[in-house]
TrEMBL record:
One of its GO terms (biological process) is phosphorelay signal transduction system. SMART domains: REC. It comes from Salipaludibacillus keqinensis. This is Two-component system response regulator. GO terms for molecular function: DNA binding. Keywords: DNA-binding, Phosphoprotein, Transcription, Transcription regulation, Two-component regulatory system. It comes from the Bacteria. Residues 4-118 form the Response regulatory domain. PROSITE patterns: RESPONSE_REGULATORY. The modification 4-aspartylphosphate is found at residue 53.
Length: 122
């Protein structure tokens, strides 16, 4: 079974880059530009992992993560942020985010983190 990954970011270029990289790595990859799309994809496709940007207009990453937990979905989440706000990162961890990384990011570090995650759940 192919591992499923959802990328949630309002920046088109980041979504395209990550989607291309992870599809080449063999993951079934979805992307969303906002919280409503993300929650719909999560409910429909039940991805194994969500890469979730912290700052998204409308419904930010913490609100999306709260909705995931409120719906009692077991989706694993890694937060992405260009903002080094320790308080928000700590809140995300309290809500069950398994990790985070800062933007701009090193794509190889992100790939390694994703690969390590999927190896840990096999």
């Amino acid at each position: 079974m192919e591992e499923k990954l959802l990328i949630v970011d309002d920046q088109f270029g980041i979504r395209v880059l990550l989607k291309e990289v992870f599809e080449k790595d063999g993951y079934e990859t979805y992307d969303a530009s906002n919280g409503v799309q993300a929650l719909s994809i999560i409910e429909e496709h039940n991805p194994d992992l969500v890469l979730l940007d912290m700052k998204i207009p409308g419904m930010d990453g913490l609100e999306i993560l709260r909705e995931i937990r409120k719906k009692e979905l077991t989706t694993n989440v890694i937060m992405m942020t260009a903002y080094g706000e320790l308080e928000m990162i700590n809140e995300a961890k309290k809500l069950g985010a398994i990790a985070h990384f800062a933007k701009p990011f090193d794509i190889d570090e992100v790939r390694n983190k994703i690969r390590d995650f999927f190896q840990s759940i096999q």
